Amino acid sequence: MDRFFVRNHTLTPRIDADAWRLRISGSGLRGGPVELTYRDLRHLPSDTITAAVECAGNGRSFFTSQQGQTVSGTAWKLGAIGVARWKGVRLSTVLKRAGLRRAAVDVQPVGLDPDFVTGGVNLGPVRRPLPLDKALHDVLLAYEMNGEPLPPDHGFPVRVVVPNWIGIASIKWLGQLEVSAEPLFSPWNTQFYRLFGPAYPTDGELVSRQTVKSAFELPWEASLAAGRQVLRGRSWSGNGRIRRVEVSTDGRTWRPARPIGHGPVWQRWELPWHPAPGAYTLRARATDVTGVTQPETVPHNTLGYLFGAIVRHPVTVV
Ligand SMILES: Nc1nc2c(c(=O)[nH]1)N[C@H]1C(S)=C(S)[C@@H](COP(=O)(O)O)O[C@H]1N2
Ligand SMILES: [Mo]
After folding, report:
1. What CATH class is the domain 21-200?
2. CATH architecture assigned to 213-317
3. 9 lines ligand 1 (CB under 6 A)
4. Which residues are in the Moybdenum cofactor oxidoreductase dimerisation domain (predicted)?
5. What is the full DSSP assignment across 65-128?
6. Which of 108, 145, 231, 301 has its CA 20 to 30 A from that of 189?
């Protein structure tokens, strides 16, 4: 867990689990507002899932280094993803107990961290609506990460975990669920986490699902010894499983990588390689179950989200 990336809009709040409440309210409920304590949540039927949290901006720096484009936000390479075992209560369990109206369409989890202020404007607490069908499908309200209470940085006492969707959907330090019979809006689905750029509509395109990516299990600008090597890496996709991975070490030809096991999120793989000394650019491209293959380039978007193109990994062989 000490190697799991942290991405905060403001600061990690310190929350007392005994004083914590989850407030559920809104026009999508049959009755009035409902409150749950930490104990209440712990006593509901639990579920455990293995899922990634991956920032929409994972890979953002490659828009600039590979495509020469300007983007704003943290210049991540491929480290803005972590996979953990999450234990908690299904959001569907909590919502059904609270009593949903048939007309309910959206659920908005709201964080307990300080309000997000940017450019002199207070945008309020970090929050982003989820469509009800996703909320009822596979979303977890997690209180444990890898068998221990959530660490403060990852959302103690309770966070949302939304499998396959961009990280902002997985609201940390959950304090409130707004259930609505009307579509909900927040700056996190109108202003941020949309694709803006020449290839997209003027009001942008909403980002929800993650894209396909591959990474070598090597340091950036790795140095390797000439001779017998085995290259290893992993690929993953918000669309589901990985069907095929190909690797190129010479900038021209592609060889199929050999899959290793089948993890619940990553597909690990390997490939023998016998390089002579010199400078190389390694490339890996995955194809997922929906037939999406990582392209050479992706269309520019100003906020640098969803970099799913093939990453060129520099390696020196000595
Ligand atoms: N309340 C709250 N939830 C949040 C955020 C935040 O700033 N506040 N950041 C989001 C973003 S942008 C990402 S990528 C993930 C990161 O989760 P992690 O820090 O546990 O890796 O949390 C999401 N949930
Ligand atoms: Mo993020």
Report:
1. alpha beta
2. Sandwich (2.60)
3. yes
4. 227-306
5. HHH-----S----S-SEEEEEEEEEEHHHHHHHH-B-TT--EEEEEE-SPPPEETTEE--S-B-
6. 145
Residue 200 corresponds to which amino acid?
Answer: Y
Candidates 250, 309, 240; CA nearest to 281 is 250
Question: Ligand 2 (ion): which residues have CB within 5 A?
Answer: 7, 55, 167
pLDDT of residue 2: 79
Average pLDDT per block of 10 residues along the chain, 318 residues long:
92 98 98 97 98 98 98 98 98 98 98 97 98 98 98 98 98 98 98 98 98 98 96 98 98 97 94 98 98 98 98 98
Question: 318 in helix, strand or coil?
Answer: coil
Ligand 1 within 6 A of CB of 82: yes
> What pLDDT was estimated at residue 263?
86
CB-neighbour burial class of residue 49 (10 A; exposed 0-12, middle 13-18, buried 19+): middle
Ranges of CATH 3.90.420.10 domains, the chain = 21-200
* Nearest ligand 1 atom to alpha carbon 56: 14
As given in the structure block, the two tokens for residue 143 are: 């209180």
Residue 52 Cβ < 6 Å to ligand 1: no
**What is the reported pTM?**
0.97
Please tell me the predicted confidence (pLDDT) of residue 196: 98
